[in-house]
Structure to design on (560 residues):
């Protein structure tokens, strides 16, 4: 807990940072409520519960927890088929989904599954977020044009928008575009100012002065004053079961958000190590979503923009989050009527701005320069999210990440090692064509742990290397193949059987198999099988020079 032993010197900067974050956060979370089709006040309830829960249990000193666009979009996709258009049921389902997320995070914490956050690779995160941005924009088309856009899928929504775009309400569109322009201008020229708050405030003032509601512009109405009373969502067991799978997807993405943002922005106390504890973040999400579920909110995670603002405002501890929550509580208790004339289109504009921040063009350009396959993965994740929805997009992104990892492990780099004049050690002959090898000896390296998916590939490529060497130098046929196992620190039972088969295949060719750079991590499991006995203790070597000398001695003893 980051509030333990609170330093008094941090009080003033924490309070100032909390006020700055609240000014930015209030219109933001109100806008995100529209993604889930909930009243703006629900976003304020959610952020109070989330910030308090994270401040008490989180491991980052500056991370800003609360509603975030991608998680709101996932929640909307999960509950949309179950709401029947009933606002109260929508609220209950969102609260129930929050409790389901808390349950999954509790399971992850008990099992110490901090590794889950690493399942989404950078290309897939970039693509998934870009796809989420497209869905967010499409979801706001009706709000910013003053039309009724119907449809569940993005294709249906686009068709629905095409049917009603001619009925666009001009004053509503002007409010939306004006608010978006104001946000962009303020954030560009005065980045330290609360741009969204000022833009939404200006839109609200214009709405009140010009009587925009009388001209057909939809307004949010006064925010109910007071704090929510904690309660259990009115849902059946069947409702909760229907949210289990969606809750897992939300939990994975929310946890990924927290750990990635926490690692990116947490101060290091003068060292190069992050203070974010991956497993403690799971505990924090349990607290956050339990609190959110009981106050009638919707799932949330962490905000990179708010966290960056807190850090730039010199926040020292999570007291800044409590200060921001206090500001929101003040709004709920005293300032609700101020928001009566807030145009819904202005909140839609804030969502459009949030969507624009999810599309990372520099990252896409870096992926294209680095490797086209990485850009392809990002594109597939983006298209999957847009076509199939957020939840399926997350599942596909995770599956692609795992598939890419397995593919790389199943078909890793291989190399035959030789000596290079003037360079210490042994090196891949493909990288150094001038490298020399001992006649009749192949030192072969396979750069991956050995398991069921790659052992047959190792057998095939090792035998191909022997056959190729015999063709190139028939007068010095291969007599030893030494497998450099320094990278093979893990092995499963299928791979043990594969190495046994390789040993026997090589014997049929008159070639002895040996292991070099054998570490205890590999020796211990192999010692529990008959493989080391089959290979022979005399063919196990600790270093490459020892193995080369042993081969030369063997050749001398077996000359002729």
């Amino acid at each position: 807990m980051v509030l333990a032993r609170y330093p008094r010197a941090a009080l003033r900067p924490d309070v100032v940072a909390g006020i700055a974050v609240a000014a930015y956060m209030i219109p933001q979370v109100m806008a995100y409520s529209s993604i889930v089709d909930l009243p703006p006040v629900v976003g304020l309830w959610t952020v109070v519960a989330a910030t308090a829960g994270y401040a008490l249990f989180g491991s980052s000193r500056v991370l800003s927890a609360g509603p975030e666009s991608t998680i709101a979009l996932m929640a909307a996709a999960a509950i949309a088929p179950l709401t029947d258009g009933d606002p109260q049921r929508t609220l209950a389902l969102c609260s129930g989904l929050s409790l389901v997320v808390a349950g999954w995070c509790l399971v992850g914490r008990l099992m110490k599954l901090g590794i889950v956050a690493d399942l989404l690779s950078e290309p897939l995160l970039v693509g998934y977020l870009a796809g989420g941005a497209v869905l967010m924009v499409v979801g706001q088309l009706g709000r910013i044009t003053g039309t009724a856009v119907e449809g569940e899928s993005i294709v249906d929504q686009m068709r629905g928008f095409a049917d009603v775009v001619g009925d666009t309400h001009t004053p509503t569109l002007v409010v939306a575009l004006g608010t978006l322009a104001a946000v962009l201008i303020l954030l560009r020229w005065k980045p330290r100012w609360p741009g969204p708050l000022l833009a939404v405030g200006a839109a609200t003032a214009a709405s009140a002065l010009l009587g925009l509601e009388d001209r057909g512009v939809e307004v949010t109405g006064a925010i109910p004053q007071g704090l929510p009373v904690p309660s259990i969502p009115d849902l059946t067991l069947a409702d909760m079961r229907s949210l289990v799978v969606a809750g897992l997807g939300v939990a994975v993405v929310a946890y990924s958000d927290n750990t990635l943002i926490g690692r990116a922005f947490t101060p290091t106390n003068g060292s190069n190590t992050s203070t974010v504890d991956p497993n403690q973040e799971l505990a924090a999400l349990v607290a956050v979503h339990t609190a959110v579920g009981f106050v009638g909110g919707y799932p949330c995670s962490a905000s990179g923009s708010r966290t960056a603002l807190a850090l730039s405002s010199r926040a020292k501890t999570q007291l800044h989050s409590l200060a921001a929550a206090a500001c929101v509580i003040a709004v709920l208790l005293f300032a609700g009527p101020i928001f009566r004339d807030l145009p819904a289109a202005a909140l839609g504009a804030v969502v459009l701005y949030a969507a624009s921040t999810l599309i990372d063009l520099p990252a896409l350009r870096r992926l294209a320069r680095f490797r086209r396959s990485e850009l392809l993965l990002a594109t597939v994740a983006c298209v999957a999210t847009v076509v199939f929805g957020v939840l399926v997009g997350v599942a596909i992104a995770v599956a692609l990440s795992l598939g890419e990892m397995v593919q790389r492990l199943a078909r890793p780099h291989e190399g035959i090692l030789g000596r290079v004049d003037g360079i210490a050690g042994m090196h891949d002959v493909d990288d150094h064509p001038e490298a020399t090898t001992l006649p009749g000896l192949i030192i072969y390296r396979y750069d991956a742990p050995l398991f069921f998916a790659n052992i047959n590939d190792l057998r095939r490529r090792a035998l191909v290397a022997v056959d190729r060497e015999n063709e190139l130098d028939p007068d010095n046929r291969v007599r030893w193949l030494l497998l450099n196992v320094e990278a093979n620190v893990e092995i499963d039972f299928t791979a043990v059987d594969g190495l046994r088969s390789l040993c026997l295949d090589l014997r049929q060719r008159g070639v002895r198999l040996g292991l070099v750079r054998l570490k205890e991590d590999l020796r211990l499991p192999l010692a529990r099988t008959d493989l080391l006995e089959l290979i022979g203790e005399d063919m196990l070597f600790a270093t490459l020079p020892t193995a080369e000398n042993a081969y030369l001695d063997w050749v001398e003893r077996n000359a002729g």
Q: What stands out?
A: The chain has a mean pLDDT of 87. The longest strand covers residues 414-420.
